[in-house]
Amino acid sequence: MHMLDIINSALRNNNYYICLYKNNIYLYNYIDILSFDNSLIMIKFDSFNLKIKGSNMLIKHMQEKELIISGNIVGVSYE
Predict the structure, then answer these.
(1) Could you tell me the mean pLDDT of each successive run of 10 residues in the chain, 79 residues long?
(2) Which of 68, 66, 33, 64 lies closest to 51, judged by CA?
C-alpha cells in the first residue's frame, strides 16, 4: 500500500472526513468549533480535537456537519 493510500484511508473514516486542498481544508461530521482566530482553529470531533495552524484563516462555508476553512494553512495535527 502506498503512503498516500494509507493517509487517505485514515482520513476517510466512516465517522468523519477531512480533506486538504491548497489553502483550504474541508471537514465533515465535526462536533464543535472549540476556538477560532485567524492563526489557530481547534475543532472537536468524536474521538479527538483537530488543531489547524496558519494565517489569514477564515470560515468559508459552515453547515451543521460541514465546514470549509480557507487561508494560509501551515499545519494540521490532532490531540
Answers:
(1) 65 76 94 95 93 96 94 94
(2) 33
Q: Read off the C-alpha cell for 13.
A: 473514516
Q: Which residues of 29-38 are buried (b: 16+ CB within 10 A; e: fewer)?
A: bbeeeeeeee
Cell output for 58: 477564515
CA distance 26 to 61: 9
The contacts of residue 14 (CB under 8 Å, 6+ apart) are none
Specify the DSSP class assigned to residue 30: -
pLDDT (0 to 100) of residue 6: 64
Q: What pLDDT, on a 0 to 100 scale, did the predictor assign at position 67? A: 96
Q: State the Rg of the chain over Cα.
A: 12
Predicted TM-score of the model (pTM) = 0.79
